[in-house]
Amino acid sequence: MDPAEFRRVGHQLVDWIGRYLEDAERYPVLSRARPGDLCDALPSAAPERGESMDAILADVERHIVPGLTHWNHPGFFAYFAISGSGPGVLAEFLSAAFNAQGMLWRTSPAVTELEEVALAWLRQLLGLPDTFEGVIYDTASIATLHALAAARQEAAPAVRERGLAGRPDLSPLRVYCSEHAHSSIDKAVIMLGLGQAGLRRVDTDDRFRMRPDALAAAIADDRRDGVTPLAVVATVGTTAVTSVDPVPTIADLCERERLWLHVDAAYAGAAAMVPGREDTLAGCDRATSFVVNPHKWLFTPFDLSAFYCRRMDRLREAFSLTPDYLQSREPTPVRNLMDTGVQLGRRFRALKLWMVLRHFGADGMRRRLAEHMRLAQLFAGWVDASDAFERLAPVPFSVVCFRACPAELADDRAALDDLNAHLLDGVNATGDVFLSHTRLDGRFVLRLAVGHIRTTERHVARAWELLQEQLTKLRR
Amino acid sequence: MDPAEFRRVGHQLVDWIGRYLEDAERYPVLSRARPGDLCDALPSAAPERGESMDAILADVERHIVPGLTHWNHPGFFAYFAISGSGPGVLAEFLSAAFNAQGMLWRTSPAVTELEEVALAWLRQLLGLPDTFEGVIYDTASIATLHALAAARQEAAPAVRERGLAGRPDLSPLRVYCSEHAHSSIDKAVIMLGLGQAGLRRVDTDDRFRMRPDALAAAIADDRRDGVTPLAVVATVGTTAVTSVDPVPTIADLCERERLWLHVDAAYAGAAAMVPGREDTLAGCDRATSFVVNPHKWLFTPFDLSAFYCRRMDRLREAFSLTPDYLQSREPTPVRNLMDTGVQLGRRFRALKLWMVLRHFGADGMRRRLAEHMRLAQLFAGWVDASDAFERLAPVPFSVVCFRACPAELADDRAALDDLNAHLLDGVNATGDVFLSHTRLDGRFVLRLAVGHIRTTERHVARAWELLQEQLTKLRR
Questions:
Q1: Min distance B59 CA to chain A CA atoms (Å)
Q2: Of B31, B60, B82, the CB nearest to A94
Q3: What number does CATH give the domain B101-347?
Q4: Using one digit for the tens of pLDDT, what is the confidence trace for B364-389?
């Protein structure tokens, strides 16, 4: 692509994206595409001759955009609402142009060192001590996988050299987390060769928090049965209900039992930077490792997961290996990102986190997070004040779990589930908002997650209005 | 960031990036930063108040750019030279703005379906059959990890449920690859709990290709010793020398032995689309899984690794699990990307591959790849014709392994290594080119890898000129 053409198309794109970021509300937030629509619309083979960017971008507008669920729509309240802010989007543009690959320090010193700088900034904002070394991964799934790999390295003798299979000297290994912990922990234990039996999900209390007494009992049971406890994963902000496990008590237990403590604060960790909410991460300074996702609630475009670890040496011990073709030639020792994990290639992700933190400043981040929590409380208040709805979990952060529960159906579990499922589909079909659902104690539950940088009170009010309207329709 | 400011800064960035892509040669290709330079230059804490984008971008220019090794410089000949083409960079900009996350079909149908379309296009261009289902990962390291996880799922009974540890019913498991296979295979077997002992590196012949007789003997040995063979990883284009393992013979063996055959064609797979070079992937249609990296030699910005598998059901069997909060509500079954691996979140990577393939067309891709191979042959010819240099491996693709070998040092191994190390440092210090090195049979070897989209004969000639100049200096 010649430079003039790059500039011409680039300027056009800036205007298009500017309009998109400004006014994503002109699109339905949940895509209305049917399965196969896009596959059917596009040719089944690459063109033989190159095509013009104008033709390609016209197809983006015509075929791709209708197939998007607009994570950038301020009415996106599903899962955890994430948003790539303006400075983050521009940083990704720059990063793509640099195309730097940070496997070694020398393959771009700035990639390695800006990662160090940006992660130190974030660590301070969260109130974590500098005994934590940081590294950026793509997702929390990969961060947790590495945390548990490091824990395995610590607990299973010679596992790097000899593995786990066919070893009479090894007993089964076990990881512990709560019933509400994320599915990535299941996937991690499968990958690591611990099997799903290698994960024990511990009971939670009436506020969906891991019960430390149940954890202690599980560990004691396992030790008695000849199973080797490996690590505990505590969650700060579980995915369904954003509950917070009692990390200080769990940390006591892990110290006593000499177990690796990994804290999954992928979503809610960010809240700790808000004045008055520092307690969010109470006890996390004593964790062995910790993950928080700036791509969730810190306005950084997907993907960027920040992993902090007090035993990064264990991770290096597990994975560091340098073939001849990757030997460095620096006279002094340098930090090479490839040593901290499976992925050799590392994208220049730190740039967007650094630009986002600078653009908003600590104060700007705190204010936005506090406002999201205010909006969630506001919505929770409406639910609580309503006769037709009920709230089903505490609201510690920016997610509200609730359902319609009109008096006439209060005792009919199946009918309530059915009503709420239809309510969800009806609200999402409007295109103005997108909510997701989960199940709590078997009940179908709606979730409203605030997290988009351009979500305002108006959008939350619109969600509430649509829920009431749809419910009225369904009750007719 | 308000829309007007986004546009103002965006337009400024388009011009800056346009100039950067056009004229990266004004920077030294290998960064001259010293360890700690960037960390020392930046504040140790995030700013309290937000800063202007002008101030931030000025710091990018002042502090970040000098810390970059310019993968975008046409004199980048190190490792595998990769390049993000104009359409790829613009696609990443769009993708960051959409910020779509493709864990489920419904979280953006276009992410899932464009991935299917783009991977089908690429598969056809490579001449692979449509029995291969594709999925995009970040890196080949992750692709290979998943390939071997699926192979383990097939070979080790109930491994998903029960894991590997403390199981007297399981014998040690083994994966096979050549001495020249990539280090990501070591990392994969470590992660999977097979241990480094779970990987056997098979001898290569005088052209650095896996010896099928040695492979057969290793498998037979292992079976005799009660070790369970799991998978063979064959490489098309090894990292150091780009040798090609005899895949058809290895495929015969794998069929006979009922072993999973994974082909790592991360770099060289692309060559198969060049007329006359279809044999590059001979036998790969019989592989169980296959990985090629469009971010390597297909002008797609980092990261995008294309994984193809004939047994994706095995991978799903290993990793598919759907918590309540991720249940879909589609009336018909849809393909959810989260089912094919550990990472729940999936970035919209397909957009850049699709835009690159359309912009260049099949013909444009082929011509560029052919030209890179021509340039490598040209350089190899210069080496071969020189008295002072020697070539140390065949040049099947776009990488030349060579060294200075002046007559006066021909018998002094240590002196030759030392000379070539200094030669490399001297050439790289000029800032005009960046070459990397490896070791072959213990000897220090220089590598010239052609792969950047803007590399022309002039750049290759400049590398040759600098090598000769530096050698003359060093021989003085």
A1: 10
A2: B60
A3: 3.40.640.10
A4: 999 999 999 999 999 999 999 999 99
